[in-house]
Recover the amino acids of this structure.
């Protein structure tokens, strides 16, 4: 499940793993995963110029190709 | 792979290297780093640097993780690909002072590599952020099915072919966007072709190498 994947990656990147939370918003054709982390960890999951966020999205869509479903990762603050 | 060894004489240092690495003298290159001659009060000492061809017999000296750092990065990567839904095994491909090479053995290598290695690069980036927390000075290289080497060869071949076209047509040509490592590969591989020069243009992710006709050096 992509949610577990996001939780796993996010927890490995942040200082405060307790603050990691992922909500699933099911849509008709796509699923939105909303990632929340502690305020001071936001930079860690986004990265310079969004490099880490982009890599996470790439990994998630690679994972999602096996089911053919579109999965969108949103990082909320 | 590069390693350093010492001995009282050059010969002894080389023997030490061969026995420590468990390989024959023919299988590595040696560079002498430092020689302090025997004197009345000192024993002589020779320091050498040994270069081992990683494609040779050393490639799988010990594919199992040895140190704590290796264990953690290997199991992190194994768990990551498992959660992605593409389980596989991770072996150690090479060890260098500041680099650790990992290779994924999986039935799903194709998707794990992705178009132009996109997925492999994303996995490598995340793994490096994680590994950076364990040991700051170490980089981890992630590979599957020897993709990185094959890809390098493809780029060099493509660059050479395009350079030929440039020389024939006397018109410059633009290669597709590449990352800094790939662009450097193009620049260095075309460095000794006198008829062309290479320049990068564009910004950020879209920087491309242009191969420009310079004219024959003899004319």
């Amino acid at each position: 499940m992509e949610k577990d994947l996001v939780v796993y990656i996010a927890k490995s990147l942040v200082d405060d793993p307790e603050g990691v939370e992922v909500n699933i918003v099911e849509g008709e054709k796509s699923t939105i995963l909303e990632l929340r982390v502690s305020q001071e960890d936001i930079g860690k999951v986004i990265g310079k110029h969004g490099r880490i966020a982009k890599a996470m999205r790439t990994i998630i869509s690679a994972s999602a190709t096996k089911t053919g479903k579109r999965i969108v990762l949103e990082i909320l603050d | 792979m590069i390693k350093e060894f010492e001995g009282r004489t050059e010969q002894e240092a080389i023997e030490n290297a061969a026995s420590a690495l468990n390989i024959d003298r023919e299988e590595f290159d040696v560079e002498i780093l430092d020689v302090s001659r025997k004197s009345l009060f000192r024993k002589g000492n020779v320091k050498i640097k040994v270069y081992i061809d990683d494609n040779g017999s050393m490639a799988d000296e010990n594919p199992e993780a040895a140190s704590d750092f290796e264990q953690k990065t290997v199991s992190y990567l194994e768990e990551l690909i498992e959660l992605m839904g593409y389980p596989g095994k991770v072996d150690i491909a090479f060890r260098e002072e500041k680099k650790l090479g990992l290779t994924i053995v999986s039935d799903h290598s194709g998707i794990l590599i992705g178009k132009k290695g996109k997925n492999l690069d994303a996995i490598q980036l995340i793994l490096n952020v994680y590994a950076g927390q364990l040991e700051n000075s170490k980089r981890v290289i992630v590979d599957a099915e020897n993709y990185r080497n094959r890809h390098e060869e493809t780029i060099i071949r493509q660059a050479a072919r395009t350079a030929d076209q440039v020389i024939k047509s006397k018109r410059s040509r633009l290669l597709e966007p590449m990352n800094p490592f790939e662009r450097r590969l193009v620049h260095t591989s075309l460095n000794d072709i006198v008829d062309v020069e290479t320049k990068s243009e564009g910004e950020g992710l879209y920087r491309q190498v242009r191969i420009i006709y310079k004219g024959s050096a003899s004319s």
About this structure: Strands of chain A lie at 21-26, 30-36, 70-76.
